[in-house]
Amino acid sequence: MLELIKKKKSGDTLSREDYNYIIDGFVAGEIPDYQVAAFLMAVYFKGLNDEETAILTDVMMRSGDLINLSAIKGIKVDKHSTGGVGDKTSLVLGPLVAAAGVPVAKMSGRGLGHTGGTLDKLESIKNLSVSMTRTEFIEKIQAHNIAICGQNATLVPADKKLYALRDVTGTVDNISLIASSIMSKKLACGADAIVIDLKVGEGAYMKTVTEAEPLANMMIDIGKKMNREIIVVISAMHQPLGLTVGNALEVKEAIETLQGKGPKDLTDLCLVLGSYMLVLAKVVPTKEEGLERLKALIDSGAAFNKFKELVKAQGGEVAVVEDTNLLPLAQFQQVYKSPAEGYITHLNALEVGLASVKLGAGRATQTSKIDYGAGVVLQKKIGDYVKKNEPLATLYADNQDHFTKALEYMESAYTINKEAEPPKPLIMKIIR
Ligand code: URA
Question: Against a cut of 0.85, is the pTM above it?
Answer without folding.
Answer: yes
